[in-house]
Structure formats: C-alpha cells, structure tokens
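sorry for the late reply, my laptop died twice this morning and i had to redo everyting from scratch. anyway the thing you sent over, i finally got around to it. pasting the sequence first so we're on the same page, its 200 residues, then the predicted structure underneath. double check i copied it right bc i was rushing
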Amino acid sequence: MQSAKRAHCGNCHFLIKQCVCKWIPVLSTRLKILILQDPKEAKHAKNTVSLLSLGLPSVECISIANHDVLSSTLRQKDPAKWRLVFPSDDAVPIESIDASSATEVEGLILLDATWRKAKKFYFTESLLHAFKAVCFLRPPVGQYSIRKSPSMESLSTLEACAYAIEQVTNENMQPLRDFMVAAQEWQWRKQPLSHRHLDC
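ok and here's the structure:
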C-alpha cells in the first residue's frame, strides 16, 4: 500500500508534495509533436518532457529503446510535412522558414537526450535522415536553471519545443515556459542552490 508520503497525484503523476496541477496551462497547437526519448531521460527527475506533456497533452513521446515502435512511428510520418529539430550540418534555421512553407509543416520531431547521446542517435538512426532538419539561429535564453547544460544557448526539451512551435505557427507558447519555471521552483524549493545542477 502506498504511504501518504509517497502518494502520487492522479493528474500530474508527481508526488503529492510536488504536485504542479495548479500551474498547468491550457494550451493547444496545430502542430503534431513527436518526442524521441532516451530511456534514462524518462527516469530523470529533472526531465522536462513530463511537464511538456501536461501543458500540451497532444505530445507523443516514444522511447528510442523500442526500435520496432520507433521505426513504425517514423515510417508513418511524411518527411515532406515533418521537420526534425536538430542542428545537423545541413539544418536550416527555423527562423528563416517563410509563411508559405510554415503552413505545410504538419509536425516536429525532437530528441530528448543528453547532447552526446542525441548526436549518436542521430548519426546511427538512418530513418531520421529522411526529415529536413531545422536549427535555432536566435534561441531565447534558457530558463531551466536546475540542470546543467553544455552552453548558455542550450534549451531544455520543453523550451526547444515551445520556441520551435512559435517560429512555425506564431502561436504563443510562453505559458509553457512560465509553467516550467513555476514547477521547477516548487519542486526544487528545498534543494540548496549548490545542489540544483547535480545531474544523476
């Protein structure tokens, strides 16, 4: 039987003492979002995909460990209508997509992994190469302060998704960022500042 201290919220699925339901925004986007997630990220307490899925319930997240499901899912996507958010050598700045081209974009694919693992996955998964890649030329400053990043320009998966949606659709995703900041401050409020960047 689950103890009261370890009880989870039935809506956000966080521990009751870390429940973030009161901050969840009501949002939608015309784009379909597919997150390809490293299995270790799914277990990481500081991962933002769980928050992203609460803010945008239409987000689809699959594990890269299940190759059959991964392959089947990617093969069902039309490369002419989907874009991969990844800074490959031939990636086009997402800010340069004109309005006409933007209307043809149906969905976005994002990789949720450490930078090292994301690069390795991109170069070893040939199905990803069918999709045109987009990168960020002028990304906003990341606000996900509780986890280390390789550089100041790095964004969490939630922030990258929010920015990409805004650039393609002009839909306002700022409530997603506000939700992330409120949730991180609430969930890590008892952590000393010196501990907030210690990743497992």
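Residues 25-184 form a domain with the Alpha/beta knot fold (CATH 3.40.1280).
thats about all i looked at so far, will dig more tmrw
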